[in-house]
Specification:
- With about 350 residues, the protein is of the alpha+beta class.
- The chain has 2 domains: about 230 residues, Zn peptidases (Aminopeptidase, 3-Layer(aba) Sandwich); about 90 residues, Peptidase M42, domain 2 (Elongation Factor Tu (Ef-tu), domain 3).
- Helix 1 packs across helix 5, helix 5 packs across helix 9 and helix 6 packs parallel to helix 8.
- The chain is globular.
- About 50% of the residues are buried.
- InterPro entries: Peptidase_M42 (IPR008007), Peptidase_M42_aminopept (IPR051464), Peptidase_M42_dom2 (IPR023367).
- One of its GO terms (molecular function) is metal ion binding.
- This is Endoglucanase.
- It holds the Pfam family Peptidase_M42.
- Its cofactor is a divalent metal cation.
Length: about 350
Protein backbone atom coordinates (compact mmCIF):
# COMPACT_ATOMS: atom_id res chain seq x y z
CA UNK A 1 0.00 0.00 0.00
CA UNK A 2 1.55 3.30 -1.10
CA UNK A 3 -0.49 5.48 1.26
CA UNK A 4 0.00 4.74 4.94
CA UNK A 5 -3.07 4.27 7.11
CA UNK A 6 -4.70 1.57 9.23
CA UNK A 7 -6.30 -0.58 6.53
CA UNK A 8 -7.44 -3.21 9.04
CA UNK A 9 -9.53 -0.65 10.93
CA UNK A 10 -11.04 0.61 7.67
CA UNK A 11 -11.86 -2.97 6.69
CA UNK A 12 -13.49 -3.63 10.07
CA UNK A 13 -15.61 -0.51 9.77
CA UNK A 14 -16.80 -1.29 6.25
CA UNK A 15 -17.47 -4.99 6.73
CA UNK A 16 -19.48 -4.39 9.92
CA UNK A 17 -23.24 -4.16 9.38
CA UNK A 18 -25.17 -1.08 10.46
CA UNK A 19 -28.24 0.20 8.62
CA UNK A 20 -30.12 3.43 9.48
CA UNK A 21 -31.52 3.25 13.00
CA UNK A 22 -29.57 0.09 13.85
CA UNK A 23 -25.95 1.27 14.02
CA UNK A 24 -25.10 -0.40 17.35
CA UNK A 25 -22.21 -2.49 16.04
CA UNK A 26 -20.58 0.64 14.65
CA UNK A 27 -21.19 2.50 17.89
CA UNK A 28 -19.18 -0.15 19.72
CA UNK A 29 -16.23 0.27 17.34
CA UNK A 30 -16.32 4.07 17.50
CA UNK A 31 -16.46 4.03 21.30
CA UNK A 32 -13.53 1.62 21.39
CA UNK A 33 -11.47 3.83 19.08
CA UNK A 34 -12.35 6.98 21.04
CA UNK A 35 -11.13 5.40 24.28
CA UNK A 36 -7.99 7.16 25.49
CA UNK A 37 -8.14 9.60 22.57
CA UNK A 38 -10.90 12.04 23.55
CA UNK A 39 -11.78 13.61 26.90
CA UNK A 40 -15.40 12.46 26.98
CA UNK A 41 -17.55 9.96 25.05
CA UNK A 42 -21.33 9.95 25.13
CA UNK A 43 -24.28 8.99 22.96
CA UNK A 44 -27.81 10.30 22.62
CA UNK A 45 -31.29 8.81 22.27
CA UNK A 46 -30.93 8.56 18.49
CA UNK A 47 -27.61 6.76 18.71
CA UNK A 48 -25.16 9.48 17.66
CA UNK A 49 -21.76 8.98 19.35
CA UNK A 50 -19.91 12.12 20.46
CA UNK A 51 -16.23 12.15 21.35
CA UNK A 52 -15.21 15.53 22.76
CA UNK A 53 -11.69 16.95 22.86
CA UNK A 54 -11.67 19.94 25.19
CA UNK A 55 -9.91 23.02 23.84
CA UNK A 56 -8.56 26.14 25.45
CA UNK A 57 -11.70 28.15 24.57
CA UNK A 58 -15.46 27.70 24.70
CA UNK A 59 -15.70 28.01 20.92
CA UNK A 60 -16.91 24.65 19.63
CA UNK A 61 -16.60 22.81 16.35
CA UNK A 62 -18.63 19.76 15.35
CA UNK A 63 -17.00 17.29 12.97
CA UNK A 64 -19.65 14.83 11.76
CA UNK A 65 -19.43 11.61 9.75
CA UNK A 66 -22.42 9.32 9.38
CA UNK A 67 -21.91 5.66 10.24
CA UNK A 68 -25.07 4.13 8.76
CA UNK A 69 -25.06 2.27 5.44
CA UNK A 70 -27.86 1.66 2.99
CA UNK A 71 -29.61 -1.63 3.61
CA UNK A 72 -33.00 -3.24 4.04
CA UNK A 73 -35.63 -4.32 6.54
CA UNK A 74 -37.53 -7.58 6.18
CA UNK A 75 -41.14 -6.66 5.46
CA UNK A 76 -42.62 -10.08 4.60
CA UNK A 77 -41.77 -13.78 4.72
CA UNK A 78 -43.45 -15.83 2.01
CA UNK A 79 -45.05 -19.21 2.63
CA UNK A 80 -42.01 -20.78 0.94
CA UNK A 81 -39.53 -19.02 3.24
CA UNK A 82 -38.31 -16.24 0.94
CA UNK A 83 -37.81 -12.74 2.37
CA UNK A 84 -39.23 -9.58 0.83
CA UNK A 85 -37.50 -6.31 1.65
CA UNK A 86 -38.14 -2.65 2.34
CA UNK A 87 -35.25 -0.36 1.37
CA UNK A 88 -33.41 1.74 3.96
CA UNK A 89 -31.70 4.34 1.80
CA UNK A 90 -31.32 4.81 -1.92
CA UNK A 91 -30.77 1.56 -3.84
CA UNK A 92 -30.53 1.04 -7.56
CA UNK A 93 -32.42 -2.27 -7.94
CA UNK A 94 -30.32 -3.19 -10.98
CA UNK A 95 -27.30 -3.94 -8.76
CA UNK A 96 -29.14 -6.27 -6.39
CA UNK A 97 -29.53 -9.40 -8.50
CA UNK A 98 -27.13 -12.24 -7.63
CA UNK A 99 -25.82 -10.49 -4.50
CA UNK A 100 -24.98 -12.23 -1.25
CA UNK A 101 -26.52 -10.67 1.84
CA UNK A 102 -26.46 -10.98 5.62
CA UNK A 103 -29.71 -11.13 7.58
CA UNK A 104 -29.32 -9.79 11.12
CA UNK A 105 -31.70 -11.60 13.46
CA UNK A 106 -32.07 -11.78 17.23
CA UNK A 107 -30.75 -15.34 17.06
CA UNK A 108 -27.66 -14.42 15.06
CA UNK A 109 -26.65 -13.53 11.52
CA UNK A 110 -27.77 -15.63 8.58
CA UNK A 111 -26.18 -15.70 5.12
CA UNK A 112 -28.51 -15.33 2.18
CA UNK A 113 -28.57 -14.62 -1.52
CA UNK A 114 -30.70 -12.46 -3.75
CA UNK A 115 -31.32 -14.86 -6.57
CA UNK A 116 -31.28 -14.24 -10.30
CA UNK A 117 -33.00 -16.82 -12.48
CA UNK A 118 -31.29 -17.93 -15.70
CA UNK A 119 -31.95 -15.34 -18.43
CA UNK A 120 -32.96 -17.97 -21.01
CA UNK A 121 -35.91 -18.95 -18.82
CA UNK A 122 -37.42 -15.44 -18.90
CA UNK A 123 -40.11 -14.25 -21.27
CA UNK A 124 -39.53 -11.11 -23.35
CA UNK A 125 -41.91 -9.26 -21.02
CA UNK A 126 -39.97 -10.37 -17.94
CA UNK A 127 -36.65 -9.32 -19.48
CA UNK A 128 -37.95 -5.83 -20.24
CA UNK A 129 -39.55 -5.27 -16.84
CA UNK A 130 -38.06 -2.38 -14.86
CA UNK A 131 -36.43 -3.83 -11.72
CA UNK A 132 -37.80 -2.74 -8.34
CA UNK A 133 -36.74 -3.45 -4.76
CA UNK A 134 -40.20 -4.91 -4.17
CA UNK A 135 -39.40 -7.65 -6.67
CA UNK A 136 -36.29 -8.77 -4.75
CA UNK A 137 -36.41 -12.02 -2.76
CA UNK A 138 -33.77 -13.31 -0.34
CA UNK A 139 -33.13 -17.04 -0.38
CA UNK A 140 -31.70 -18.39 2.90
CA UNK A 141 -31.34 -21.97 1.70
CA UNK A 142 -33.56 -23.14 4.55
CA UNK A 143 -36.98 -24.78 4.70
CA UNK A 144 -39.82 -22.38 5.44
CA UNK A 145 -40.25 -23.75 8.97
CA UNK A 146 -36.65 -22.92 9.84
CA UNK A 147 -36.98 -19.45 8.33
CA UNK A 148 -40.14 -18.75 10.35
CA UNK A 149 -38.34 -19.86 13.49
CA UNK A 150 -35.25 -17.68 12.97
CA UNK A 151 -36.37 -14.62 10.99
CA UNK A 152 -38.92 -11.96 11.92
CA UNK A 153 -40.45 -9.04 10.11
CA UNK A 154 -38.27 -6.05 11.03
CA UNK A 155 -34.97 -7.92 10.89
CA UNK A 156 -32.23 -6.10 9.01
CA UNK A 157 -30.39 -7.03 5.82
CA UNK A 158 -27.10 -5.77 4.39
CA UNK A 159 -25.06 -6.84 1.40
CA UNK A 160 -22.20 -9.21 2.22
CA UNK A 161 -18.90 -8.02 0.80
CA UNK A 162 -15.24 -8.11 1.77
CA UNK A 163 -13.10 -4.97 1.62
CA UNK A 164 -9.90 -5.36 -0.36
CA UNK A 165 -7.07 -3.38 -1.88
CA UNK A 166 -7.48 -3.05 -5.62
CA UNK A 167 -4.37 -1.52 -7.13
CA UNK A 168 -4.19 1.94 -5.54
CA UNK A 169 -7.82 1.73 -4.51
CA UNK A 170 -9.79 0.23 -1.64
CA UNK A 171 -13.09 -1.36 -2.64
CA UNK A 172 -15.98 -2.84 -0.69
CA UNK A 173 -19.42 -2.10 0.71
CA UNK A 174 -20.29 0.79 3.04
CA UNK A 175 -17.27 2.95 2.21
CA UNK A 176 -20.14 5.45 2.15
CA UNK A 177 -19.57 6.54 4.79
CA UNK A 178 -17.28 4.39 6.93
CA UNK A 179 -14.24 5.82 5.14
CA UNK A 180 -15.20 9.22 6.59
CA UNK A 181 -15.73 7.74 10.06
CA UNK A 182 -12.25 6.27 9.67
CA UNK A 183 -10.81 9.67 8.66
CA UNK A 184 -12.54 11.35 11.61
CA UNK A 185 -11.14 8.80 14.08
CA UNK A 186 -7.64 9.27 12.69
CA UNK A 187 -7.91 13.08 12.94
CA UNK A 188 -9.09 12.74 16.55
CA UNK A 189 -5.97 10.70 17.31
CA UNK A 190 -3.73 13.35 15.76
CA UNK A 191 -5.35 16.39 17.38
CA UNK A 192 -3.18 17.70 20.20
CA UNK A 193 -4.05 20.60 22.51
CA UNK A 194 -6.57 22.33 20.20
CA UNK A 195 -7.39 25.99 20.57
CA UNK A 196 -11.13 25.19 20.42
CA UNK A 197 -13.35 22.40 21.71
CA UNK A 198 -13.96 19.76 19.05
CA UNK A 199 -16.90 17.37 19.10
CA UNK A 200 -16.22 14.39 16.83
CA UNK A 201 -19.62 12.86 16.03
CA UNK A 202 -20.46 9.57 14.36
CA UNK A 203 -24.01 10.30 13.25
CA UNK A 204 -26.94 8.01 12.48
CA UNK A 205 -29.72 7.82 9.91
CA UNK A 206 -28.08 10.05 7.30
CA UNK A 207 -29.14 7.75 4.49
CA UNK A 208 -32.83 8.29 5.29
CA UNK A 209 -32.80 12.07 5.66
CA UNK A 210 -29.85 13.52 7.67
CA UNK A 211 -31.78 12.79 10.86
CA UNK A 212 -28.89 12.24 13.26
CA UNK A 213 -27.11 15.40 12.15
CA UNK A 214 -30.23 17.49 12.61
CA UNK A 215 -30.62 16.24 16.17
CA UNK A 216 -26.96 16.71 17.10
CA UNK A 217 -26.95 20.21 15.64
CA UNK A 218 -29.61 21.20 18.16
CA UNK A 219 -28.04 19.38 21.11
CA UNK A 220 -24.51 20.71 20.63
CA UNK A 221 -25.32 24.06 18.95
CA UNK A 222 -21.78 24.45 17.53
CA UNK A 223 -20.09 27.65 16.42
CA UNK A 224 -18.77 25.86 13.32
CA UNK A 225 -19.63 22.56 11.62
CA UNK A 226 -17.56 20.39 9.29
CA UNK A 227 -19.15 17.32 7.74
CA UNK A 228 -17.24 14.40 6.24
CA UNK A 229 -18.82 12.23 3.58
CA UNK A 230 -18.16 10.50 0.31
CA UNK A 231 -18.97 12.13 -3.01
CA UNK A 232 -19.49 11.01 -6.57
CA UNK A 233 -16.49 10.19 -8.77
CA UNK A 234 -17.92 9.41 -12.18
CA UNK A 235 -14.45 9.33 -13.73
CA UNK A 236 -15.29 6.08 -15.54
CA UNK A 237 -16.72 5.20 -18.96
CA UNK A 238 -19.07 6.34 -20.45
CA UNK A 239 -19.01 9.64 -18.55
CA UNK A 240 -17.26 12.74 -19.91
CA UNK A 241 -15.07 14.97 -17.73
CA UNK A 242 -17.78 17.61 -17.03
CA UNK A 243 -19.84 14.81 -15.43
CA UNK A 244 -17.10 13.47 -13.15
CA UNK A 245 -17.89 15.70 -10.09
CA UNK A 246 -14.56 14.50 -8.64
CA UNK A 247 -11.75 12.27 -9.83
CA UNK A 248 -10.03 9.50 -7.88
CA UNK A 249 -6.44 10.32 -6.99
CA UNK A 250 -6.82 14.10 -7.33
CA UNK A 251 -7.17 14.74 -3.60
CA UNK A 252 -9.82 15.48 -0.98
CA UNK A 253 -13.01 17.16 -2.14
CA UNK A 254 -13.83 20.59 -0.73
CA UNK A 255 -17.59 20.89 -1.06
CA UNK A 256 -19.14 23.97 -2.60
CA UNK A 257 -22.68 22.59 -2.84
CA UNK A 258 -24.95 19.57 -2.94
CA UNK A 259 -28.73 19.16 -2.87
CA UNK A 260 -28.89 19.88 0.84
CA UNK A 261 -26.45 22.77 1.23
CA UNK A 262 -24.50 25.63 -0.25
CA UNK A 263 -21.48 25.69 2.02
CA UNK A 264 -20.35 28.86 3.76
CA UNK A 265 -18.01 30.69 1.36
CA UNK A 266 -15.56 31.69 4.08
CA UNK A 267 -15.39 28.14 5.44
CA UNK A 268 -14.64 26.51 2.10
CA UNK A 269 -12.20 29.30 1.29
CA UNK A 270 -10.30 28.61 4.53
CA UNK A 271 -10.30 24.86 3.82
CA UNK A 272 -8.75 25.67 0.46
CA UNK A 273 -6.18 28.03 2.04
CA UNK A 274 -5.16 25.36 4.55
CA UNK A 275 -4.79 22.75 1.80
CA UNK A 276 -2.63 25.07 -0.29
CA UNK A 277 -0.46 26.08 2.66
CA UNK A 278 0.11 22.47 3.71
CA UNK A 279 0.49 21.18 0.11
CA UNK A 280 -2.46 18.82 0.55
CA UNK A 281 -4.02 17.79 -2.78
CA UNK A 282 -7.64 18.85 -3.14
CA UNK A 283 -10.40 19.37 -5.69
CA UNK A 284 -13.53 21.49 -5.57
CA UNK A 285 -16.78 19.55 -5.41
CA UNK A 286 -20.11 20.61 -6.92
CA UNK A 287 -22.51 17.71 -6.40
CA UNK A 288 -25.66 18.18 -8.54
CA UNK A 289 -27.80 15.64 -6.64
CA UNK A 290 -27.63 14.07 -3.19
CA UNK A 291 -27.59 15.54 0.30
CA UNK A 292 -25.18 15.21 3.23
CA UNK A 293 -25.04 15.89 6.95
CA UNK A 294 -23.68 19.33 6.04
CA UNK A 295 -27.21 20.48 5.33
CA UNK A 296 -28.51 19.04 8.58
CA UNK A 297 -25.84 20.85 10.57
CA UNK A 298 -26.05 24.20 8.79
CA UNK A 299 -29.49 25.32 9.88
CA UNK A 300 -31.15 23.10 12.50
CA UNK A 301 -30.04 25.25 15.45
CA UNK A 302 -30.15 28.57 13.68
CA UNK A 303 -27.59 29.70 11.12
CA UNK A 304 -24.30 27.83 11.57
CA UNK A 305 -21.26 28.26 9.32
CA UNK A 306 -20.77 24.88 7.71
CA UNK A 307 -18.34 23.26 5.33
CA UNK A 308 -17.54 19.75 4.20
CA UNK A 309 -14.65 17.57 3.13
CA UNK A 310 -15.55 14.74 0.76
CA UNK A 311 -13.82 11.50 -0.19
CA UNK A 312 -14.17 10.92 -3.96
CA UNK A 313 -15.83 7.53 -4.46
CA UNK A 314 -16.64 5.46 -7.51
CA UNK A 315 -19.74 3.25 -7.73
CA UNK A 316 -21.58 4.85 -4.80
CA UNK A 317 -24.51 2.95 -3.30
CA UNK A 318 -23.30 -0.38 -4.65
CA UNK A 319 -21.46 -3.27 -2.94
CA UNK A 320 -18.25 -2.33 -4.80
CA UNK A 321 -17.68 1.30 -3.78
CA UNK A 322 -14.08 2.34 -4.46
CA UNK A 323 -11.80 5.06 -3.07
CA UNK A 324 -8.18 5.99 -3.80
CA UNK A 325 -5.76 5.49 -0.92
CA UNK A 326 -4.10 8.88 -1.44
CA UNK A 327 -7.47 10.68 -1.30
CA UNK A 328 -8.15 9.07 2.09
CA UNK A 329 -4.80 10.33 3.34
CA UNK A 330 -5.48 13.81 1.93
CA UNK A 331 -8.85 13.91 3.71
CA UNK A 332 -7.25 13.00 7.05
CA UNK A 333 -4.44 15.52 6.53
CA UNK A 334 -6.80 18.35 5.56
CA UNK A 335 -9.20 17.80 8.45
CA UNK A 336 -6.33 17.60 10.94
CA UNK A 337 -4.60 20.73 9.60
CA UNK A 338 -7.88 22.66 9.56
CA UNK A 339 -8.67 21.77 13.17
CA UNK A 340 -5.11 22.47 14.32
CA UNK A 341 -5.35 25.96 12.84
CA UNK A 342 -8.82 26.81 14.15
CA UNK A 343 -8.58 29.46 16.85
CA UNK A 344 -12.21 30.45 17.15
CA UNK A 345 -11.30 33.91 15.92
CA UNK A 346 -12.03 33.44 12.22
CA UNK A 347 -15.01 35.46 11.10
CA UNK A 348 -17.40 33.27 9.11
CA UNK A 349 -20.29 35.72 9.02
CA UNK A 350 -21.38 36.78 5.55
Amino acid sequence: MDAEFDFELLRELTETSGVPGYEERLRDIVRREFDGVVDEVRSDAMGNVVGTVEGSSDYSVVVAAHMDEIGFMVKHITDDGFLQLDALGGWDPRVLKAQRVTVLTEKGDLPGVIGAVPPHTLTDEQREKEPKVEDVYVDLGLPSEAVDERVSVGDLVTTAQTTVELGNHVTGKALDNRVSVFAMLEAARRLDDPGVTVHFVATVQEEVGLRGAEAIGVDLDPDLAIALDTTVANDVPPFKSPEYVTKLGDGAGIKLKDSSVITNRKVHRRLRDVAERESIPFQLEILPAGGTDTGGLQRTSGATPAGAISVPTRYLHTPTESVHQSDVVATIDLLTAFLDSETGEHDYTL
